[in-house]
Amino acid sequence: MSNSKEVVYGLYSDEQDLLKAVRIAKSDHMEIHDVFSPFPVHGLDPIMGLEESRLHIAGFIYGMLGALTAFLGMTWIFTKDWPIIFGGKPYWSVPAFIPITFETMVLFASIGMVVTFYIVCGLGPGVTNEVLDDRLTDDKFAIAFDTHDVTVDSAKSFFSQTGASDVNVKVI
Amino acid sequence: MSAPVSPIRPPLIEGHKSYHDITNDLVSPTERVPDKSWVIAFLLSVTVLGFGIFCIIWTIWHGIGTWNLNRTIGWGWDITNFVWWIGIGHAGTLISAILLLFRQKWRTGVNRAAEAMTIFAVMCAGLFPLIHMGRIWMAMFIFPYPNTRGPLWPNFNSPLLWDVFAISTYFTVSLLFWYTGLVPDFATVRDRAKGIRKKIYNFLSFGWTGSAKHWQRWESLSLILAGIATPLVLSVHTIVSFDFATSVIPGWHTTIFPPYFVAGAIFSGFAMVQTLMIITRKILNLQEYITIEHIESMNKVIVATGMIVGVAYLTELFISWYSGYIYEQFAFFNRALGPYYWSYFGMMFCNVVSPLFFFSKKLRRNIKFTFFMSILINVGMWFERFVIIATTLARDYLPSSWSFYVPSWVEIGIYVGTFGLFFTLYLLFVRVAPVVAIAEIKSILKTAGDQYVGPNAIHHHHDDDHDNDHGTHIETDHDHGYQKVSEGATTVTAAQATKKVDSASAQSRMIGDDLTKIEGIGPKVSQTLKDAGIYSYAALQQSKVEDIQRILDKSESNFGGNNPESWPVQAKLAAEGLWEELDQLKDKLDGGRIA
Predict the structure, then answer these.
(1) Is B175 in the A-facing interface, judged by CB distances under 8 Å?
(2) How far from A137 is each of A5, A38, A140, B190, B205, CA to CA, in Å?
(3) Is the pTM of this model over 0.90?
(4) Does B513 score more than 70 pLDDT?
(5) Is A106 close to B188, i.e. CB distance below 8 A?
(6) What phi-psi label fits residue B472: left (phi over 0), alpha (psi between -120 and 50 degrees) or beta?
(7) Average pLDDT in the B490-499 region?
(8) pLDDT tens-place string over residues B72-120
(9) Measured between alpha carbons, how far is B591 from B521 in angstroms, rounded to an integer?
(10) For residue B466, pLDDT beyond 60
(11) Cβ of B249: how many Cβ atoms within 10 Å?
(12) Which chain B residues in 142-161 lie under 8 Å from chain A, judged by CB atoms?
């Protein structure tokens, strides 16, 4: 994933300016490489045309996997591998399996989703990503264009039109 | 997309903060050299922790015989402390998960610290069952893994094993949830840091950049984790209560236990959050982020859950009598009037009587009183667990085996040691990580910052640095259709600013708009509305007629004759500065009523 890209970006001071600029870029058919912000900007995804995250589907699958692992595991252990009678109850005492089934479902779903999240985002311990500007985790918002998709000149005129500051070209 | 906010909601961030101010205020505690008070507190905590570790080693070396448990009273301070700490560990997930699902914005001020508290409390809790096993080096036997003993499996039908699963899952999920929330904030710290700190925070922040797609997934992840952590948090204390409820001990064998334990857990957890946050906000100067509103909201949760606990206590008493079962009746008689009567009455006073003081708004907003109450409640909740566990066991079916129990110095030492562990970890946390979730606070700034809502909202931007930025908001808001209140207010304000900027509007910045210009509103009603948080025409315009009616109904004065149905319409005209149109409208109105 480390094929570096040259991007041209500009900084905005307010999320409303950012949203407006993204909308203009979209209507001008300028392909946006990425948008960076210090916090999740509401309403940005539909304007940028980002597809909805499919993380919840992954979470559902992991959860089912956990529930099945626990339930089938306990079933196998208590009916086949080592059947023991506890308090005269049947070997396969389903109600007693519910709590552990539930807990394992939650455990698998959350670990699975978190790991998936970091993998698909390319984040994790030891990962260092080039930061466009240190203020992007503070109070600035940036739009970045890939210089292959949008020429530096047209990007610069776009940024000056939409009131961006600190327009720069950087390799990330 | 954030939910619509009632215009009468008070602000949650004070001091007219900009995004940069928020970063500065919340990151700076991790950048300073620790001051004397922190060092003293830390050394004290570590010392206490050291003594706790000594007592734990003593227990493991000499065996459980160093505790004063006996044949009758097999569970004493150990399990009492376990349940107590695990209960405290419930508030964090409740605040971060359930309040996230309910879109309660006040959670952002306290969720980070509350989640940290949860994790540390669960660590303290987990210690007790582990030591109580006696042979702690065999602890892995509790997990089902293919082993050389048969393989021999644990008993999946036992609530004690369910506990193992519930608590380890709870700990893991809380940790993941907490850390995922911290990653963007660690990136904020990283981007301000230099040298070795930059390297450390670069590692901790996992290479976070703030890309839009990452934020989208991050939000999706937070929401789903919250969704599954909500039943999880309820399940954990339910299962802890099963440890007791599935037994055949009178006083334990009751179906009321799960809800009663969960409510008690939330009750004590919120009390512990109050204790910590009141100290933290003072020492780290976070009063503008953890406001009186936050404290009051938590006190409301405390009074609600306290009453659930109170009802549960009384229900237990009633049912023990009503059941006609003499052993059950004796168990409760013994709790209240037996040798441990003081712990029963301590519990009743601290958990049932004292939270009722929070029905007074004045006391809910009194920080010293809240702090005192938060301690009292956790004392009471400790008594509750002691009453349920030791008192009940002390007088069992067989009078010849009745016994009495006082803890040994080792048991006391371990309990005190868990405070050392808890505070050591908490003090390290406040040094290393931003105590308030920076990104989340920034995302509610425009809807909960006091320059946007409430009495100090700025109605004109001429003295504001971001003057031009706001000017551009107007169309953006409209054609996009996002009508958050603050944005609505900004819209109106900007329009007003272009139409007429006069001395009256400068004055309105101080005390809000002159609401008496609206037909039907006199000085008294105006004051009532302002007390309720409606300061401006803009806010009144956004208010629903029912809400206004509710404010009037709730006020002490009798406003039965006032009809607010036309007030929002009038306020709209006033907000836009269309005074002539307003006068025309007033002519048509009859005392504010639409004729």
Answers:
(1) no
(2) 21, 4, 7, 9, 11
(3) no
(4) yes
(5) no
(6) alpha
(7) 42
(8) 898 989 999 999 999 999 888 888 888 888 878 888 888 888 999 999 9
(9) 9
(10) no
(11) 16
(12) 144, 150-153, 155-157, 159, 161
Phi-psi region of B86 (alpha: psi -120 to 50; beta: other; left: phi over 0): alpha
Tell me the pLDDT band of A62, cut-offs 50, 70 and 90: very high
A10-19 average pLDDT score: 87
DSSP character at residue B390 = I
Instruction: Delineate the domains of chain B, giving CATH numbers in brackets.
Output: 19-143+159-443 (1.20.1630.10), 461-594 (no CATH)
- Rounded to an integer, the average pLDDT of A59-65 is 95
Dist. CA A19–CA B503, nearest whole Å: 34
Per-residue pLDDT reduced to its tens digit, B354-413:
999 999 988 999 999 999 999 999 999 999 999 999 998 999 888 898 988 899 999 999
Let me know: does B274 contact B313? Beta carbons within 8 Å. no
Per-residue pLDDT averaged across B538-547, rounded? 78
Residue B249 phi/psi, 5° resolution?
A: -85, 125
A121 Cβ contact list (under 8 Å, min separation 6): B211, B213, B214, B217
Residues 186-215 of chain B whose Cβ lies under 8 A from any Cβ of chain A: 187-188, 190-192, 202-203, 206-215
- HSE toward the beta carbon, residue B453, CA cutoff 13 A: 26
Please answer whether residues B66 and B409 qualify as being in contact, where contact means their C-beta atoms are separated by less than 8 angstroms.
Answer: no
- Which among B162, B172, B190 has the least Cβ separation from residue A100? B162
Residue B3 predicted with pLDDT over 50: no
Residue B183: CB partners within 8 Å, gap ≥ 6?
A123, B204, B205, B206, B208, B218
Q: How many angstroms separate the CA atoms of B349 and B345, rounded? A: 6
Quickly tell me which residue has 């089912």 as its tokens.
A64
C-alpha dist (Å) from residue B291 to B10, B29, B107, B287: 10, 18, 11, 5
User: Cβ separation of A138 and B218 shorter than 8 Å?
Assistant: no
Indicate the pLDDT class of residue B172, thresholds 50, 70 and 90: very high
Measured between its terminal Cα atoms, the distance across chain A in Å is 11
- Put simply, the answer to whether A125 touches B183 (Cβ < 8 Å) is no
How close is the nearest chain B Cα to the Cα of A20, in Å? 6
Which among B246, B294, B282 is positioned nearest to B95, based on CA atoms?
Answer: B294
Q: How close is the nearest chain B Cα to the Cα of A3, in Å? A: 16
Long-range contacts of B64-69 (CB under 8 A, 24+ apart): B64/B132, B64/B134, B66/B408, B66/B410, B67/B407, B67/B408, B67/B410, B67/B411, B68/B405, B68/B406, B68/B407, B68/B408, B68/B411, B69/B405
- Using alpha carbons, select from B212, B227, B223, B124 the residue that is nearest to residue B180: B223
Burial B318-349 (b: 16+ CB within 10 A, else e): eebeeeeeeebbbbbebbeebebeebbebbbe
